[in-house]
């Protein structure tokens, strides 16, 4: 069972918000406990206002692993959440990190950061990349091999039912579940010479230094879509997913070979299907009463066409299987040199949750288009599905995990399953501003439900 940590992070109160008052908050518990041991209490400010029934004081269960205070910088969050699991990644494990919260609460600042030069303000993903690149440099210095270890970077955003490749000009990709029950993210179909049909997987950029990761990530995130939310007009309205996997150039070449063999199979498989359908249609005739009966004039020797086409298809299917087996062999041979190969960090900067309840404020009345409202509904659906997946995975008696509830959880399925023997975390970011009391309370309730489920399942 995955160990799932739950953290809360309060952002500082902005000077422009001080006239509205500040939420009263306290944290109780022992953060040194092996399991969840911190409770958070909040109460709305009474300055210049009468509290509504929605603004009653609230207290969580012992469901949090820790609290990051407003005056603590990003490096503190990294040292507490991510630094302890880098050793797991260097053993080939997968660890996932999520930032959840309402718009404007500091998710993107925490997960990605806005300052790409100041190490203390690196977001979790950038700080992790820095440490990972340093560790891989040390490993490369110890092992004499032609193919050095590097970081394979993927950056994409989930919007509605599609993924958009931010390392490939926001190219729209499609989320599909294959016969192997694995979810694949595929780009547009390319028609190549000799009739080959290639469906490219999402882009992986090989980075051999931290500076390369930094540059690629900066360029990718410029492509991320923003729109009007109920809080402000430049809100991130997509879930940004940043994957960093430990790779070598040999492994990437083996994976490219699989894609190439698959592209060769597509036209051959299509031809075999076309021939089969054509011959089946010729082999029957329709009678006057509308029934289909065997065609007495059909030359059964034509079935050789079907046999030949199927034989060729089987030949190309064998090539795909051989390429997949070769990829596995390459992976295994690299793993004998060092167990870090395939280790993966996944950072998910979730779109801002939309809380439409409570009294209207000037910001919550921001004009949204029908499309933006629909986006908000889809975002909330994704976030609900994510919560239910995390809770279900914590319940040892629950055999069915509702991954299919949303495209987001379908995409994350492989990462959840790959992290079964490692630690993952969700950090909820919350605003101290009194006007955001209802949104803050709902955010903490979301985390409380996850934390309590993990506590019971642990």
UniProtKB/TrEMBL annotation:
PROSITE patterns assigned to the protein according to its UniProt record, in alphabetical order: KINESIN_MOTOR_1, KINESIN_MOTOR_2
Protein name per the record: Kinesin-like protein
Q: At which positions is ATP bound?
A: 101-108
Q: Which residues form the Kinesin motor domain?
A: 3-453
Q: What is the lineage of its organism?
A: Eukaryota, Fungi, Dikarya, Ascomycota, Pezizomycotina
Q: Name one GO biological process term.
A: microtubule-based movement
InterPro entries, per this entry? Answer: Kinesin-like_fam (IPR027640), Kinesin_motor_CS (IPR019821), Kinesin_motor_dom (IPR001752), Kinesin_motor_dom_sf (IPR036961), P-loop_NTPase (IPR027417)
Q: Which family does it belong to?
A: Belongs to the TRAFAC class myosin-kinesin ATPase superfamily. Kinesin family.
Question: What Gene Ontology terms describe where this protein resides (cellular component)?
Answer: kinesin complex; microtubule
State one molecular function term (GO): microtubule binding
> What keywords are assigned to this protein?
ATP-binding, Microtubule, Motor protein, Nucleotide-binding
């Amino acid at each position: 069972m995955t160990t799932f940590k739950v953290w809360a992070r309060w952002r500082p109160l902005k000077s422009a918000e001080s006239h509205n008052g500040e939420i009263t908050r306290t944290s109780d518990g022992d953060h040194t406990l092996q399991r969840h041991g911190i409770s958070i209490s909040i109460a709305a400010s009474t300055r210049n206002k009468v509290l509504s029934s929605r603004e009653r004081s609230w207290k969580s269960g012992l469901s949090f692993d820790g609290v990051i205070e407003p005056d603590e910088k990003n490096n503190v969050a990294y040292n507490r959440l991510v630094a302890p699991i880098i050793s797991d990644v260097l053993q080939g494990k997968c660890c996932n990190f999520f930032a959840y919260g309402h718009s404007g609460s500091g998710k993107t600042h925490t997960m990605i950061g806005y300052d790409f030069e100041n190490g203390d303000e690196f977001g979790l993903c950038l700080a992790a990349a820095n440490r990972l690149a340093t560790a891989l440099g040390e490993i490369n210095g110890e092992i004499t091999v032609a193919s050095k270890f590097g970081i394979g970077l993927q950056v994409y955003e989930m919007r509605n039912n599609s993924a958009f490749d931010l390392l490939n000009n926001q190219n729209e990709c499609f989320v599909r579940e294959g016969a192997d029950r694995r979810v694949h993210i595929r780009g547009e179909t390319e028609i190549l010479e000799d009739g080959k049909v290639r469906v490219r997987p999402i882009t992986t950029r090989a980075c051999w230094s931290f500076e390369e990761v930094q540059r690629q990530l900066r360029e990718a995130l410029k492509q991320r879509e923003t729109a009007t939310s109920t809080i402000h007009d430049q809100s991130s309205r997509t879930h940004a997913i940043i994957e960093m996997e430990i790779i070598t150039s040999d492994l990437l070449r083996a994976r490219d070979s699989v894609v190439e063999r698959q592209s060769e199979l597509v036209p051959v498989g299509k031809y075999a299907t076309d021939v089969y359908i054509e011959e089946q249609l010729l082999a029957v005739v329709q009678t006057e009463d509308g029934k289909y009966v065997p065609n007495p004039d059909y030359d059964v020797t034509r079935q050789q066409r079907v046999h030949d086409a199927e034989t060729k298809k089987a030949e190309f299917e064998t090539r795909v299987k051989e390429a997949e087996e070769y990829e596995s062999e390459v992976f295994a041979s690299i793993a004998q040199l060092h167990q870090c190969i395939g280790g993966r960090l996944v950072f998910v900067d979730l779109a801002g949750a939309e809380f439409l309840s409570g009294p209207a404020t000037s910001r919550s009345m921001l004009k949204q288009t029908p499309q933006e409202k629909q986006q908000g509904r889809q975002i909330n659906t994704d976030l609900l599905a994510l919560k239910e997946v995390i809770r279900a995975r914590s319940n040892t008696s629950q055999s069915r995990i509702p991954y299919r509830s949303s495209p987001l959880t379908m995409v994350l399925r492989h990462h959840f399953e790959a992290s079964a023997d490692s630690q993952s975390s969700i950090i909820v970011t919350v605003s101290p501003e009194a006007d955001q009391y209802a949104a803050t309370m709902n955010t903490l309730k979301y985390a409380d439900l996850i934390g309590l489920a993990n506590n019971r399942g642990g």
